[in-house]
Design a protein that fits this description.
The chain has 93 residues and is an all-alpha fold. The protein is built from six helices and no strands. It has a domain of 65 residues. Helix 2 runs parallel beside helix 5 and helix 4 runs antiparallel to helix 5.
């Protein structure tokens, strides 16, 4: 629903759905890691959650899964549209 504000209970539900229903033979956890990044793409474009984006980027920086890395890159690209200098400085560091 457009304009909906998520609450803590919503994130618990999403986490349960991801861990229960989103699977793959390669890694049961890859989708949770990828979802952590791509769920912030639209908020990133709207100048929201930059500290959270950078925290997740730190956690996923050395992830070896290609789909997780693609989600990570997509998240940073979206964030750079609203926070170009901050994302540039993050990547350079």
């Amino acid at each position: 629903m457009k304009g909906r504000q998520y609450e803590a209970v919503d994130f618990k539900t999403l986490e349960k759905w991801i861990s229960s229903y989103v699977t793959n033979w390669a890694s049961g956890n890859r989708w949770a890691r990828r979802t952590a990044a791509i769920s912030l793409i639209i908020p990133a474009r709207n100048r929201k959650f930059l500290p959270d984006i950078l925290d997740i980027a730190d956690l996923l920086l050395t992830d070896q899964d290609d789909l997780v890395q693609k989600g990570y890159g997509w998240m940073l690209k979206a964030a750079s549209q609203a926070h170009q200098k901050e994302i540039f400085d993050y990547v350079i560091s």
